[in-house]
Amino acid sequence: MEVSINLETNVESVVLQPDYYLSNFKILLSFVADRYSFLLSEKESRFYKTFSCLSADAQKLLTRCYMRKGQLFRLDKLNYTEINDKDEALKELINANLVSELESQSVADWITLFNKAELVKAFNKSEWKNFKRKELELFVIEFCENHDIPQAIIDHTILFVPSDNFETYRLLFFGNLRQDLTEFVLQDLGLMTYESYSISDKSLAIKNRDEIDALKTLHELSELIHSRPEWTPELMDQAIERIPQLQSQSTLYLRRRSKIIYALARENERMGEYARAAEMYPQSQHELARERYIRCLEKLNKPELAWYELQKLDAEATSFHDKSFVLTFEKKLAKRLRETVKNRTSFYIEEQAIQLSRSQRSVELDVCDWLAQQGGVAYWTENSVFNTLFALIYWQGIFEDIEGAFYNPFQTQPADIYEPLFITRRESTLLKIRQLFQDGSCFRSHIRDTYQSKYSLACSFAHWQMVDAELLDTLLEKVPFSDMDKITQRILSSPKEFRSGQPDLIYFDNNGNYELIEVKGPGDRLQNNQKAWFDFYQKNNIPHRVIRVIYDD
DNA sequence: GGGCATTCCG
DNA sequence: TTCACACGTTCCG
DNA sequence: GAACGTGTGTCTCGGAATGCCCGG
Ligand SMILES: [Mn+2]
Ligand SMILES: [Mn+2]
């Protein structure tokens, strides 16, 4: 039986209104004003009122600025045909205190707004022409210390458009600061379609005022870390100083704070600051924080404490990663402390070595071809196959209207998907789904129905382009339901831990069998999360293989 | 002038 | 705003 | 072998414009 697919909407046929972005911006503002007014400061509430009273031109100009990067703009670069009277709009915005002309004389503020040619010309220094951007900036800065800023620069009107109010609205609307107004456009153009869950009045991303400021700070720290700066002790001090100390049980807040603390502590390790790192890790709920903490204790010459923490971790360890860490690290510590270690069986798996001649393509594709020569067909899918099946099977649970799970219209997964309570909150729905499978015959139609009705809807686990209708048919035909069920149940038990680590290939031979195959190049080895899956396959009689490629040179 | 990254836009 | 994976180097017992 | 750092392809799309660098 074939799986048919709804045709996607024709992207070309969609034409947006000239003021599409203003409509979207207004939707965002009113959504927040309706749901979160109890969190807004006086200033933020006034912002909404003030904005609403502006002329359409002024609203458009301000929104256009918010859509751009940064808070400083050259007036001559703000050109929009749909704005009738830019100068009048600007006057309005300045009167409303939403925009001001830049007063700062600081070079660093305006220098990025000019390109090299403009700077060379404005300073009338043709000898600077061949400098690289970085060098040129140094000369400009030095020159401005002793001279007036050239008229050619001053002649440009530079606008300062503070975005802190908008950032608050954006944070409350999305529940994060990574999404922005382009979400609306992508949806309107039909490039992205979201599941139509309902968002109740009580389903809020943030519930305390203090969390707003804390989350903003965490986002700034996250951007700092992501920019990979040169970590000097001073910079690190400043960063750590900024970590919010707010006591809140909000999982959103704790998760993001834990991530920042972990990243900064890890950076302290690289700087050799093990003592400080060891102070930080216990404050983080990051899944690797306990391991790093113990490593730091060992570096700090506290093997007894490290041993104690390691035994504690061993008793509580649930993840394969923690267990294998305990296994290797206790040997190292035991030697030092003359302790004895329990005899544990470590993971082992046989590899099949094959010899191939070098090609231009990836080793995975080489093995796909090799398998095809043996008969049958192989797909390079990594995690996408079983994550997609997981989504298809448990879709109704994943997108169930649970309070707090969905708080903006552009989510690809519920907010609590990585929490242990995810399953408990959806217990009855998940049970109903499982009951469908009691007689073992309904699962195919359940999966097919979901595939057909939800096809192309955005879900962080569903990879529609990777698992096309043909592959889905093959899967349903060749993979026994009991295997599919075991694997997807495992993903359900901890989506965060088990959404990765699945092998490279899925292979279907000519005798109706399937097999999960990990390809390893000459210098590559199984990673921990890959071992965890193979361990699971071994214990559950799921067909699996590791193929080691050797190139004949 | 080509190659590449970033930004803006719909 | 990654994240998942592969690959190369260094270090140590 | 263990541990670490880094590179690469996914990136929520795809095109146009801009800016920078580098080699001819
Ligand atoms: Mn792989
Ligand atoms: Mn592989």
Description:
The chain is an alpha/beta fold. Helix content is 53%, strand content 7%. It is built from 26 helices and 10 strands. Strands 5-10-9-8-6 form a 5-stranded mixed beta sheet, with helices on both faces. Strands 1-3-2 form a 3-stranded antiparallel beta sheet, with no helix packed on it. It has a two-stranded parallel sheet with strand order 4-7. It starts with 19 loop residues before the first helix and ends with a strand. Bound molecules: manganese (II) ion (MN) (2 copies). One manganese (II) ion (MN) is lined by residues 504, 518-520.
Compile the SSE list and pairings.
Layout: H1 20-36, H2 42-53, H3 56-67, E1 72-74, H4 86-95, E2 100-101, H5 107-110, H6 116-122, H7 133-146, H8 151-154, E3 158-160, H9 164-174, H10 182-188, E4 193-194, H11 209-226, H12 233-242, H13 251-270, H14 274-280, H15 289-299, H16 303-316, H17 320-337, E5 352-356, H18 363-374, E6 377-380, H19 384-398, H20 421-425, H21 427-436, H22 442-454, E7 457-458, H23 469-478, H24 481-493, H25 495-498, E8 505-508, E9 514-520, H26 528-540, E10 544-551
Parallel strand pairs: 4-7, 5-10, 9-10
Antiparallel strand pairs: 1-3, 2-3, 6-8, 8-9
Helix pairs in contact: 1-9, 3-4, 11-13, 13-14, 14-15, 15-16, 16-17, 19-22, 19-24
The protein binds manganese (II) ion (2 copies).
The protein binds 3 DNA strands through helix 10, helix 11 and helix 17.
